[in-house]
Design goal:
This protein is mainly α and 295 residues long. The chain has 17 helices and no strands. It is globular.
């Protein structure tokens, strides 16, 4: 009877261990941000069944816009350990990028409920809410990650928390009255600058600053030349960053250079045919921004 009790206890402990985080996700996210795809592939060849090596590979695939390949690696991790929350998040992030928002949101909410400290899920959900134009919700989720503190969050996701907060505040300000513009609009640039201090060469940071300097009125710091500089640098670092091409297209539209506008819009759509920003710009819906043509 005693032996059975011990066996049962061991089974429960093993079950709890497999449910808990098997990975040091914060360290692995930062490792993925500082390594190359060939180096990561070589590491996986040496450790084919290493959850850590596979997770870093999947993250590097995401960083390189290879979402399908990342999805397959996340699935492999789950085949080795079905309760790996990090891989569940990875598949949800792939779904989000594929515009399968309902499926992605359902998984992300389950992950957050199971482990409220897993910040990548908050960031993915915040981006999703932003795309749905639920900007107040995006602000709330970004703030949760900021409040966790830098020591609990990997550098890229901590930086993204400031970027999402700034972008969503900017959209709230643009849709509100004078008081909203004062309260929310003044929060944009300080948060972008915090993100820049954390990761000055991040394409997401460059895009955020470029968007601010393009969209903000001159009285609030808008500067189209600064916008061009930041966005040109973004696509130089990451030639597959579709959103930056859209912003550049909008800048040239504002300058009445319709040839370059068309060129950059086509580049964005070639990379991502369903890019929300590009479709918004083409349709003139103004979900995310409107362009005033310079006189």
């Amino acid at each position: 009877m005693k032996v059975k009790s011990i066996a049962l206890a061991v089974t429960v402990i093993i079950s709890l261990c497999t449910y808990a985080y098997p990975l040091d996700w914060r360290t692995l996210h930062e490792q993925a941000d500082s390594t190359s795809l060939p180096a990561t592939l070589a590491e996986v060849e040496k450790n084919e069944d290493s959850l850590e090596a596979l997770y870093v590979l999947a993250l590097v695939y995401l960083n390189n816009h290879k979402d399908a390949e990342a999805g397959e690696i996340f699935k492999k991790i789950l085949s080795l350990n079905p309760r790996t929350i990090e891989a569940q998040w990875g598949l949800a992030e792939v779904l989000r990028r594929k515009k399968k928002m309902k499926e992605s949101e359902a998984v992300l909410n389950k992950i957050i409920k199971a482990n409220p400290r897993f910040s990548p899920a908050y960031i993915s959900l915040a981006y999703l809410k932003y795309t749905q134009t639920k900007f107040t919700e995006a602000v709330r989720l970004a703030l949760k990650v900021q409040k966790q503190g830098r020591d609990k969050v990997d550098l890229s996701n901590y930086t993204r928390a400031y970027l999402i907060y700034a972008g969503a505040k900017g959209m709230i300000a643009s849709r509100g009255g004078p008081l909203s513009k004062l309260v929310n609009g003044t929060a944009v640039l300080p948060n972008l600058k915090k993100a820049e201090k954390l990761q000055p060469e991040s394409v997401a940071v460059l895009f955020g600053l470029g968007s601010f300097y393009f969209l903000a009125p001159p009285i609030a710091g808008g500067n189209i030349d600064k916008a061009l500089t930041y966005l040109a640098k973004a696509i130089k670092i990451d030639p597959l960053f579709a959103d930056a091409y859209v912003r550049l297209a909008q800048i040239y539209k504002a300058k009445k250079d319709m040839q370059k506008y068309q060129e950059y819009i086509e580049k964005a759509l070639k990379i991502d045919p369903n890019n929300e920003l590009a479709l918004d710009a083409i349709g003139g819906v103004c979900k995310f921004s409107c362009v005033t043509v310079q006189e």
